[in-house]
Design brief:
This protein has about 300 residues and is of the alpha+beta class. It folds into two domains: about 210 residues, Rhomboid-like (Rhomboid-like fold, Up-down Bundle), CATH 1.20.1540.10; about 80 residues, Dna Ligase, domain 1 (2-Layer Sandwich). Helix content is about 50%, strand content about 10%. The protein has nine helices and six strands. The strands form two sheets. It has a four-stranded antiparallel β-sheet with strand order 4-3-5-6. It has a two-stranded antiparallel ribbon with strand order 1-2. Strand 1 and strand 2 form a beta hairpin. Helix 4 packs across helix 5, helix 6 packs parallel to helix 8 and helix 7 packs across helix 8.
Length: about 300
């Protein structure tokens, strides 16, 4: 993913743990109770639109049809979920993950021939994971995704290549959209991959991040207006020595022009050196934003970390 997280992805790892635990428990029940347990799990934990058990909209995100179904989903959940969780925060990520999964289920039902009267069951985390991919698409569209390949036909061949995230994810979405439309037009009534859920999940993730960015930008604009209307003294004309840290080099007088916003309060102005020291000491949240004279919008404070942060 060409991305290094700044914190442990606790929510992503917890989701992987819950999915794995549910599968292991269902497997134990199958070996101890036989096919009756499998039928019960399918009826009460998988999402069957015609039955309308409201809790299955949640439980169906954590059930899987087999070990390969589970393993494939968990790999993609770790790759995309860890990145998105680090970028937007743990609580928001969990909420967006579940909402994205719900959007995936609703689109899946909408594309079924019988809609809410359909008896076709749905289960798996792929809808919510698709929402993670949609969120990642807007958060890091300009990043590259690294692919590794290996095949053996007479000779062994292995290598790697990179593709921009927006190209890779858009291609994946277009492929699933095509299969979802084909399945809807042919009134597919059997099992298989829920392409409609993938489509709904990705669209749900994109929508959630669009709303999130709009709210953040609106809050930032309000903060900028507060700064513009509330400052009596121009921060660019304040003597830097008054704000410089005690251990700062005396020959580097910086003008404090950087304002910080942690989502609830705005502080500043600070110098670049002060901000970097605060980052190293953990005094500034990684989710904080910064603004300085000449900037049109607030940016992530992590961009100011510089080389000392590694």
């Amino acid at each position: 993913m060409n991305y290094r997280t700044e914190r442990l992805p606790l929510v992503t790892l917890s989701l992987i743990g819950v999915n794995t635990l549910v599968y292991l428990v269902s497997l134990i029940c199958y070996f101890s109770q036989g096919s009756d347990s499998e039928i019960w799990i399918m009826q009460y934990l998988w999402l069957i639109p015609a039955q309308s058990f409201f809790w299955t909209f949640l439980t169906s995100m954590f059930v899987h049809a087999g070990i390969f179904h589970l393993a494939g989903n968990m790999i993609f959940l770790f790759l995309f979920g860890a990145c998105v969780e680090d970028l937007i925060g743990r609580v928001k990520f969990l909420i967006f993950y579940l909402l994205g999964g719900l959007a995936a289920e609703l689109v899946y039902i909408a594309m079924l021939p019988g809609h809410f009267t359909s008896e076709i069951p749905m289960g798996g985390a792929s809808g919510a994971i698709s929402a993670c991919m949609g969120m990642y698409l807007l958060l890091r569209a300009d990043a590259d995704i690294e692919f590794k390949y290996f095949f053996w036909f007479i000779v062994i061949k292995a290598g790697e290549f990179e593709i921009p995230a927006w190209i890779a994810i858009t291609f994946w979405f277009a492929k699933d959209l095509l299969w979802a439309v084909i399945g809807m037009l042919s009134e597919q009534r059997g099992g298989g991959v829920a392409f409609g859920a993938h489509v709904g999940g990705l669209l749900g993730g994109v929508t959630l991040i669009m709303i999130y960015k709009w709210l953040v930008r609106r809050k930032e604009n309000d903060a900028v207006e507060t700064i513009s209307s509330g400052l009596i003294i121009d921060p660019t004309k304040i003597i830097a020595v008054a704000y410089a840290p005690i251990n700062a080099p005396m020959n580097t007088l910086e003008t404090p022009t950087i304002f910080l916003f942690d989502g609830t309060a705005q502080t500043g102005p600070f110098t670049l050196t002060q901000v970097q020291i605060k980052l190293r000491h953990g005094e500034i949240s990684r989710d904080a934003q910064y603004w300085s004279e000449g900037m049109t919008e607030w940016q992530s404070v992590v961009d100011l970390a510089g080389s000392p942060m590694g």
